[in-house]
Structures are given as structure tokens and as C-alpha cells.
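Troubleshooting entry. Yesterday's outputs looked truncated, so today I'm pasting the complete records for two proteins to confirm everything comes through intact. If either block looks cut off, that's the bug. Protein one:
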Amino acid sequence: MSKSKYSVVYVVGAGLSAGLGFPTIARLLPELWKRLDRKSASDLADVVRFHHPYFDVDLCKTYPTIEQLLSEMKANADLFDSTRPAAGGFTSVELQERRSKLLHELAAWFHDLKKTALTSKPEWLGQLVTTMKNERATIISFNWDLILDQLLFGKDLDRTSYGLGRRRTGVRLIKPHGSLNWYKGDMAGPIKEGKKFALTDGKMNSVIAFRPLRAPISRKGRKYMPLIVPPVYAKQFEGPLFRKLWQETVQVLSTASEVRFLGFSLAEADFHARFVLRCGFYNQENGQLKRSGGRATPTGRSKVIIVDPLDEPHKRIRSVVGWQCASHKKTISAWIADGGLSHASQNAQG
């Protein structure tokens, strides 16, 4: 069935950031380890070695992935009092503190990587951002970093940029896993009013966004932990903000004319992303659900493009989409250099 308006949706993952110098999931923890101070590294090594007896900080192949480690730490914390009569090598509170330090250092590192990436911005990234703006596309990013936030919106960033509040006619960036410049309202009180704006209404479970796209700097040494969904196997999405973000994700996918997956692996363990994507593609064929229980007129199957150099992401994404996709087994930069964006834009305009 024809669509009244051609709408383009990008789904981007770690492959986009990896092309800008951010670490892959396999290399993330060994590289992050170099940034930890001696005590933090020693404390964390005790935790890692408990779960992985053969762990050696000097051997990269002995490191778990960040997703595996954080999942193990969560299981440890959940069952802490149920599996031991005493604290042992570290208390439950210390375990939580070590996990928080790890995530905080990860956030700080990603801020530094963003500075480096934008200082020497590659040509392909500029072409991608320009195309996104011209198409008034919706971008669904499962990355926390602020690369696209900066290049798409800059100082004009507001809640509508993130698909919240009134629906904007221009480009939008939906971030279902959170963002490095989002903070819970009760934590963000000391931040000056001119440097933040509300993402949610009301005081309960309020969330604000820090408009300077960097980490807040506190003269009193406060540490602000951003509102990001940690990379664990059983992810948790709490509060009205994430509910709204997932609703928007399903809505834009349900009526998309074209969906372009760029560097998105759709890991086997990411059941939430798999489910929400399936909802969108199912609705394309069957119509969106109405509050009354019925369904709207279906807009029909979208054209789907997958760009990733590895085989597995193509297989996993096709299994969720449910129909034939255009696969490009190359990096995002190579796809753009080969005219991928030009061909896609011509199709959108045609």
C-alpha cells in the first residue's frame, strides 16, 4: 500500500561509533582498564577474578566483555545475601560502588572520545549528517555518545530533538538506551538552569538534559552519573521517559517508508531491541494498534538496507524484518564512499 509521505528511519549501533575511534565491545574493557586508577583497577580485578579465575590484566583474551562483566556483577549483587553468611572479600555496598565507578569512568572516556572524533571529523560523517537533515529523518540510536546530538542540533538541542514533546517536522534523534547528557532530576539540581532543559514533565521521575554536550563540571567535586541503560543481558527500562522513547520507536518504524540499519549488530541477547523492532515491522504489514483495540490501515513493507561488514548482523536483522533486505557487507564509511547515501536519497526522492 502506498504511503502519503516518504519517511526515512535510520537505526544506528556501535558500528557507527567504531568508525569514529570508539572501541568495539570486545576491546572496550581492556582499553577502559588503562584509564582506571591503581586502587579502582585492583578492586575491580578482585571482582573479575572471582567470576573468571584465569583473569590476567595483561592478557586481553582473558577479559570478559563489558556486557558479561556487568551482568555478572548484577547477579552477584542480586544474590549477595542469599549465597553467603558473611561479606567475604567485599561487601554488597563495595560491589555496587565498583560497578558505579566503572560506569562513570566509561562515561568520562566516551566524552573524551567524542572530542577526538569531532576534532578530525571524517568526510563520510559529514555527508551522513547532511543527508539525515535533508531527509528530515528519524534516527534511532542505541549508542550513548553525543556525536550525532552535536552534529545534528548543536546549541539548538531541545526535547523535541529527542522525539519528546511536540512532534517536530525536522530530523529527530531517539535514544532508547539513554544518553551521556541525560540525568535524573534529583541528581541534577546543582546544575545551572541555563545549561539544562527538562525531558519529562512533573517532578516525579523527572529527567533533564545537559545542553553543553560534555560532562558537567563541578567546583565541589560532584560526580554526575548519566542516565544510560548499562550493557547487561537483562536490561531494565524504568520510568516514563523510557516508556515514551520505546513508544516513539515503535511508532516511527510502523509507518517508515525506508529503514537503514547502519552498524547495528542486534546482538542475540538484546531481546528488548529485537522485540521493539519486530513490533514496528509487524505493524507495517498489519497496521498500528489503536487504543480502541483495532488497527490502523497498514502502510506496507518498507525498503530495508543493512550496512555492516560482518555476516551475522545481516542474518539477525533479516529474521526480525521478515522480508528481503538490501545487504551491504562493508563499513559505513565504505558504503558512503561507494555512493550508498546518494542511491538511497534518490530512491527517497523518487
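Protein two, checking that the full record survives here as well:
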Amino acid sequence: MKKASQNPDEPTISSPVSTQKPKEVSEQSREQQLRLAGMLILGADELAQQAREVKRKREQEVVELHSGFRITIGEINAIVSGRHSDYLPMFPNNISFFSEIARLSEVKFDPTEYIKPAFVGKIVVEVVYGRFDKSVLPALRALNPAYTNGIRPQKLYHYLTVEGLALLEQYRDEAIEVMESCSSMYEFRRKLFQQYGVPYQIEAFK
């Protein structure tokens, strides 16, 4: 066995052991590792259950619109779409919705004109959009806010889903059917209220 040199000018041979301390794992990395390990341990059923719970909580989140009306996402996501869609007209001239309103109304107007009296729009909201769940109309108005002159950039139904459009078409056609059996706007409103429970105070329209 060779002895180490006693000569102070000659370097001493030592064993190749590193004196550097091992690097510590950061707290963030440790959390990520633990999270990954937890995900690997969880079975597919548990992950699916967690996803359903996240979706449920998301749908229960309350959204407060500019008007102050409060709704949950779950209440409107089946009817209202956050994206504008270019649908075909839902109140075209070949459907007698506006001509029936003109016939029953005391204020006469041309039902084929694109710009109609303001009260016509109120009737549409009342007898068609008013039949949706109470959360739908405020959501549609929030997605499609009116200009200062009261005109909205898009039609409200452009923000309905396919399911919502089907309901709008149903409510529109039912309103036409009732109007065709009436001789006055008051009679129409009274019958619509009796048949479909349209939410307005019928006594106000006598």
C-alpha cells in the first residue's frame, strides 16, 4: 500500500468524494410531484366524478348582470348562447305574426315595414320572450345591449341556442293561433294568459 507523500510541495492524493451538498427540491416542484402522484393514484371513476363536481359547481355560480338581475349559469346555458349566430328571420313577412298585431291594435301600421312602432317590440317581448324562464330575457339583453337610441345591434334570438329557437318558434306560433281567434288586443292578451299563463297583469290592459 502506497503511503501519502510527506513532501509539502507534492499534492496529497485523496478519495474522489464530492463535498457539494445535494440540491434541495423546491417547494413548487414538490407540490407538482405530489399532485402528479395523486392523479396517477386516482382511478378513472374518481377523476370523472371530480369533473362532474367541477361542472356542477360551475353551473351554480351566480352571475350578476348589469341590470342587477342575478342568475346562475345552469339556468340559462341550455337556452342562451354566449356567441352570436346568424339565423334565418324568426318573424318573416310570410308569417302572420305582425299582420295579426296590426289587425288587433288600435294603432295601425304597415306590418311589412322593417322599422315598426315601439309598442310592437314590447308586445313581442311580452307574448314571446316573456314565456321563457325569467332568467332568459335579462341574459339576452345583457349579451346584446341596446344603443343610446334604444335599438339593439342584433335580434335577441341571435343569442339563443337551437333548443331556445325551437321554443321561440313554438311560442310565436301559439301567439298567432290565439290572435287569429280574437277581435281585440285585450281579448288576445286575456286568452293568451288563460291558455299559457303569460306573466303580465291582464287588468292593466282593459
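Both blocks look complete. Sanity check on protein two: The helical segments are 27-41, 44-60, 73-76, 97-104, 118-127, 136-143, 162-179, 185-196.
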